Amino acid sequence: MPHPIMFSDDDLGLAELRQIALRFPDAFEKISHGRPSFFVTKMFAMYGGSSKTAVPGTMARFSHSLLVKVDEVDRAALQRDGRFFFPAYLGPSGWLGLDFTAAKIDWAEVTELVDASYRLVAPKKLIRELDDSTHGAL
C-alpha cells in the first residue's frame, strides 16, 4: 500500500529546496514515503519529516522541513541548534532535520547542508563534476 501524499507544491520552502537540490549533477526528484525526495544514486535530501516524542508511540510532524545526511563532525553542533531535530527512521543512519518554521530560513545554510549531504552519498565521479563546475559553487 503506497504512502499518502504529505505535501503540496506550494508548501513553505519546497520550491526553493527543489531549485537547490536539482542543480546537483544527476540529481532527480521522486516521491518517497509520501514526500518529495532528492536522489543521486542514493537519497541526499527529503522535504518533511517527523520525530519520535517522549510519549511512546507518538510522533511530532515537521511537515515543512529539510532532512539531510550529516557528517559526524558536524552532528553535535547541529543538534544543539533548536531548529534541528532527530528524524524518525533516518536519524539512526546519520540524518538530521531542519525545521523551516522554527526561524527565518537561511537559504545559504540550506544550500550548504544539501551540498554536504550530496557529497556524503554521491559517487566520486559526480563529486568531481560538481567541484569542476564553477569550483563547486551552486
UniProtKB/TrEMBL annotation:
Keywords: DNA-binding. Pfam families: YjbR. It comes from the Bacteria. One of its GO terms (molecular function) is DNA binding. Gene3D superfamilies: 3.90.1150.30. This is MmcQ/YjbR family DNA-binding protein. It comes from Mycolicibacterium komossense.
